[in-house]
Design brief:
about 10% strand, RNR_lg_C, Ribonucleotide reductase large subunit C-terminal domain-containing protein, mainly alpha
């Protein structure tokens, strides 16, 4: 499941490697720390270290491996913190946000043996990353002085994951695979919320558990559901498919939220404080497929991209995953990809 990404902490790891040029421009435009004309984040690894250090400072007393876990999750684009945190954490004068706080899980990074008959979703890794995300969200809302704030946990890279799993976004099999993938994400989120309730206390006790009753009955076996009714949940409604176009571009140009893959050699307009730039990229799934498929002599990407999808196709994907999400899917989250601002 390793596509060339590494976390560098200190001097003992290989630097991160981008696989899509759009991601480089996204990082430089929106997430690279500058002070006036001075560059503070000289590399993407400096950004990872800055953000990881700030997040770890919220959880003093954690074992050393905690920093490595956070760094690995963020630098491999499995977990994308709120874009305000990626841009500002560790910089002078930064204040932790509470209003509209979110984190995003990149589903494309949990596919094992992509584009093979043995491709599958690595559910243990997904569950571990979701738990880490909720720990960080809980820490951040306390650091912001708003322990009752209700953040959201969203997803990107669904269309990439579907292609890597060998399914067609526009077919019934694609809808079924999308629903199952989001169900696994939602189940992991519910179990992680319950685990944190056991460790840190439940939020609003019986009220939160009662609100989650449909989710308990729909997601879990009776043993897990009964355990949650006893322990309660740390968070209220969490799961969403909110559009996060900047995070999707940073994460090596995966599809935003539930949107289809944009397509090969597409032009992107990246608008940042330093001006507007145009860059061409094919996105994570197509680039990875080219890298893996070159050995077999394959030529044409065998899965549909945005040009071959319709509004009805996207609506079916949204309808398939909606039962597993706490918040309604917004139209923008499943839109045909467009230029990012």
């Amino acid at each position: 499941m390793d596509y060339g990404f590494r976390y560098r902490s200190g001097v003992h790891a290989t630097p991160t490697t981008f696989v899509d040029p759009v991601a480089v421009e996204a990082w430089d435009a929106w997430f690279r720390w500058r002070e006036g004309n001075a560059l503070r984040d000289l590399t993407i690894d400096a950004t990872w270290s800055r953000v990881t250090g700030a997040l770890c400072a919220l959880t003093a007393g954690q074992p050393a491996r905690h920093e490595q876990q956070i760094g690995d999750a963020i630098s491999s684009w499995r977990l994308l913190p709120d874009e305000r945190i990626l841009a500002g954490a560790g910089t002078r004068g930064f204040a932790w946000p509470a209003r509209g706080l979110n984190a995003t899980i990149n589903l494309a990074r949990f596919v094992s043996l992509p584009f093979t008959e043995r491709a599958s979703l690595h559910t243990d890794s997904l569950a571990a990353t979701v738990l880490l995300a909720l720990r960080l969200l809980d820490d951040i809302r306390h650091a912001a002085g708003c322990p009752e704030a209700q953040p959201r946990l969203g997803i990107i890279g669904l269309a990439d994951a579907l292609a890597m799993l060998g399914t067609d976004y526009t077919a019934a099999s694609g809808c079924a695979a999308a629903a199952e993938t989001v169900r696994l994400f939602a189940t992991a989120t519910l179990l992680a919320s319950a685990q944190l309730a056991q460790e840190r206390g439940a939020a609003n006790g019986a009220a939160q558990t009662a609100a989650a009753q449909p989710r308990l009955d729909g997601y879990l076996c009776s043993t897990d559901a009964n355990a949650i009714r006893t322990s309660g949940l740390r968070f209220g409604p969490l799961t969403a498919a909110d559009s996060q176009p900047r995070l999707a571009l940073l994460a090596n140009n995966v599809a935003d939220a539930l949107s289809p893959l944009r397509g090969e050699r597409q032009t992107y307009d990246i608008k940042g404080p330093q001006g507007e730039r145009q860059v061409t990229g094919s996105g994570f799934a197509l680039t990875l497929w080219r890298q893996l498929g070159a050995r077999s002599g394959a030529r044409a990407f065998p899965y549909p991209t945005a040009a071959a999808t319709t509004e009805a196709d996207r609506a079916r994907i949204a309808a398939a995953v909606q039962p597993w999400l706490d918040f309604p899917v917004a139209a923008q989250a499943v839109a045909s990809p467009c230029t990012a601002a």
